[in-house]
Amino acid sequence: MHATLRNLDDRDRADTPVDFLVDTGAIYTTLPVEIVTELALATPEQRAVEFANGQRDVWRLGEVRVRLGDAERTTVFFAGPPGCRPLLGAVTLEQFGVAVDPNSQRLIPISSFFI
Fold first, then answer.
1. DSSP type of residue 81
2. Which of 6, 8, 27 is nearest to 17 (CA)?
3. 114 belongs to a structural domain
4. CA distance 38 to 47
5. In what helix (H) or strand (E) does residue 68 lie, and over which residues does it extend?
6. 0.85 exceeded by the pTM?
7. Is 90 within 8 Å of 27 (Cβ atoms)?
8. How many domains does the chain contain in total?
């Protein structure tokens, strides 16, 4: 999935296109530290993360502007380790109102639910 990223505080910085793996099992979007550095994204917080294999770590957390198709939103991201694959997580998918259609391997619009 292709998306474009931008620094929230430095709109003069060029947009950066990124090829994401959509990961519905990941809560937040993950960016490799190289992209975080390139965009000079702030990561003012840190949060414990736990992986499917039970391993735990602490990663930096920040916000980034994401453009997906014609829509643009601000979303939370984790600054992952160098060379990691950029992941588009569930929170970002919800913010854009899309879900994964595994048959066609694409994102499709969904309705928002209120309970």
1. -
2. 6
3. no
4. 22
5. strand 56-68
6. yes
7. yes
8. 1
Residue 53's φ and ψ, nearest 5 degrees, are -85, 5
Task: Indicate the burial class of 31 (C-beta count within 10 angstroms; 0-12, 13-18, 19 or more).
Answer: buried
Q: Which domain holds residue 85?
A: 2-109
Query: For position 41, which CATH number holds?
Result: 2.40.70.10
Coil, helix or strand for 16?
strand
- Note whether residue 84 is domain-resident: yes
Which tokens go with 54? 């039970």
Whether 92 and 31 have beta carbons less than 8 Å apart is answered as no
Strands of 8-115, DSSP E: 16-19, 21-22, 29-32, 45-50, 56-68, 71-80, 87-88, 98-101, 106-109
Cα 2 to its chain centre, rounded Å, is 11
Q: How far apart are CA 81 and CA 93, in angstroms?
A: 22
pLDDT tens sequence across 66-102? 999 999 999 999 999 999 999 999 999 999 999 999 8
Tokens of 113: 């639910």
Q: If we measure between CA atoms, which residue out of 40, 37, 53 comes closest to residue 7?
A: 40
Please provide the size of the chain in residues.
115
